C-alpha cells in the first residue's frame, strides 16, 4: 500500500540550470568577476564537494559551507557569499524555474489522497532559500520538507529516506520517492526499502513501470498519477 510520495527538488520539480545561472549572475555582480570565471569556479566547486561527500560523507550543512567556501576562495571574495546566493535563489521567477508538469504532478498526487513531501540534498545555497521558493511555487502543497542541511543526512543515505518517512508518518514500505538522479534518488530509495520513480528528462521517451521490482523510469512528470497507481499493485 502506498500512503505517501516524496519529491526531489532540483531537476525534478524545479529547473536547476535556471537556478545555477541566477546564482552565477549574482555572484558575478557581487565579486566583480566575469560570468565565465564564476561559471568555471562553480563547476570546480561542484566537483570538489561531490567528491568530498562521497569520500568523507559530508553532511548537508557541511556541503553548503564547503561549496561556498571553495567558491569564495577561488574568486578571492571575502564577503557573505552564501547570503548573495540565497537571495538570488529565493527570489527566482517561479514561472521560469518550476517545471510545468511538476505543478500538475503534485496536485495529482494529492488528489489520490496521499501525503506529499520533499526530500532534497543541498549544495551552494541553504534549504531556507529552497523552502521560500517552493512555498511561492506550490503554496502549502507539502506535508513535509526535509533537506540535507536540516536532517543531517544526504541522499542516497538510508537515514535521509527514513527521516522523510518519519516526517510523513508512514513506513518506508508505504513511501514512493520521485527524483532525477539514478544513484541518489532511485538507488538510495530502493536500498532504503521504498519504491521509486526515476525522472529521466531527455533520456527516455516513454515510461517504463516495473511494479515487481518496485520502480519506474519516466520521461517527465506527466502521467505520474497512473505510474503511482501501477506501482501500488506490488
Overall description:
The mean pLDDT is 96. The protein has 11 helices and 7 strands. The chain is an alpha/beta fold. Strand 6 (208-210) and strand 7 (215-218) form a beta hairpin. Helix 1 (16-31) crosses helix 4, helix 2 (35-56) runs antiparallel to helix 3 (60-75) and helix 4 runs parallel beside helix 7 (127-138). The protein folds into 2 domains: 4-14 and 94-232, Rossmann fold; 17-91, DNA polymerase, domain 1 (Orthogonal Bundle), CATH 1.10.150. The protein has helices spanning 16-31, 35-56, 60-75, 81-90, 94-97, 100-111, 127-138, 148-151, 158-168, 182-191, 224-231; strands at 4-7, 115-120, 144-147, 175-179, 195-199, 208-210, 215-218. It has a 7-stranded mixed β-sheet, with helices on both faces. 53% of the residues lie in helices and 13% in strands.
Amino acid at each position: 500500500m502506498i500512503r505517501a510520495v516524496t519529491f526531489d527538488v532540483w531537476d525534478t520539480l524545479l529547473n536547476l540550470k535556471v537556478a545555477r545561472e541566477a546564482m552565477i549572475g549574482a555572484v558575478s555582480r557581487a565579486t566583480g568577476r566575469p560570468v565565465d570565471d564564476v561559471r568555471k569556479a562553480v563547476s570546480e566547486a561542484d566537483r570538489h564537494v561531490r567528491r568530498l561527500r562521497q569520500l568523507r560523507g559530508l553532511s548537508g550543512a557541511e556541503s553548503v559551507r564547503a561549496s561556498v567556501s571553495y567558491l569564495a576562495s577561488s574568486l578571492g571574495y571575502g564577503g557573505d557569499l552564501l547570503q548573495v546566493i540565497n537571495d538570488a535563489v529565493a527570489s527566482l521567477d517561479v514561472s521560469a524555474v518550476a517545471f510545468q508538469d511538476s505543478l500538475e504532478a503534485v496536485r495529482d498526487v494529492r488528489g489520490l489522497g496521499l501525503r506529499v513531501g520533499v526530500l532534497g540534498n543541498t549544495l551552494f545555497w541553504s534549504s531556507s532559500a529552497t523552502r521560500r521558493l517552493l512555498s511561492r511555487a506550490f503554496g502549502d502543497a507539502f506535508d513535509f520538507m526535509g533537506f540535507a542541511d536540516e536532517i543531517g543526512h544526504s541522499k542516497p543515505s538510508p537515514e535521509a529516506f527514513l527521516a522523510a518517512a518519519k516526517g510523513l508518518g508512514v513506513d518506508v514500505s508505504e513511501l514512493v520517492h520521485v527524483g532525477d538522479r539514478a544513484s541518489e534518488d532511485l538507488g538510495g530509495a530502493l536500498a532504503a526499502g521504498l519504491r521509486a520513480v526515476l525522472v529521466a528528462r531527455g533520456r527516455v521517451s516513454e515510461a517504463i513501470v516495473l511494479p515487481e521490482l518496485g520502480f519506474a523510469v519516466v520521461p517527465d512528470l506527466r502521467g505520474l498519477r497512473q505510474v503511482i497507481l501501477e506501482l501500488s499493485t506490488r
